[in-house]
What does this fold into?
Amino acid sequence: MDGNGRWARARGLPRLFGHRAGAENIHRIVEDCADFGIKVLTVYAFSTENWGRPRDEVDGLMRLLQETVDKEVPQMNEKGVRLWHSGDLSRLPTGMQQAISDALELTKGNDRIILNVALNYGGRAEIVRAIREIIREGMPAEDVTEEAISAHLYTAGLPDPDLIIRTAGEMRLSNFLIWQAAYAEYYSTPVLWPDFDRSELKKALDAYAHRERKFGRLPSSD
Ligand code: IPE
Ligand code: MG
It folds into this structure.
């Protein structure tokens, strides 16, 4: 969900207004995804690297994230959304840790769509954590397979992403689901996240529908 800062700057507003517009966009896109039949949506809300931003921006983002969880979770629950979290909860403010675990519990019976919120998430840190857990469990080396590693990630039990959309034009993965994204189709659009709406989502899905996924093999026609 990139481009909040640029969206605000283009309007002569402080960056946090962009973050607010971006946060408000989430529930719309969740609904659009559910309408299009998507079963799992992951949003990259805050990376482990985002702590390096200026203090007032980090504080503002944390307040906004807390507000968004408080406001959106009851509504999402009513709409059949199951919340999921990927990332290190322990470094987040305790109020937010509680709100997130409550949200996971509240929505665990829902199955219309899973909204996985990557919050204080980093892909490399996730892999390190998985390997540490595997070692702690005393797993024999020959049992350490790709499936075993996948089963120790935050996304254990979720399918790998088919499509990764990056808004605001950057052409990099920025430590997002780096293990899970091995065969994901990548789509980058210059549209800034607060402006990314249902029609932009449809464009991304149409582009995806025209990709030929080969998973390292030959095209199906050969
Ligand atoms: C992404 O928007 C939102 C978060 C990282 C939380 P940015 O803040 O990165 O927006 P730009 O890149 O400055 O436009
Ligand atoms: Mg950015």
User: Anything to note?
Assistant: The helical segments are 4-9, 15-35, 55-78, 94-106, 123-136, 146-150, 198-209. Residues 1-6, 22, 46, 50, 61, 168 surround IPE (ligand 1) (CB under 6 Å).
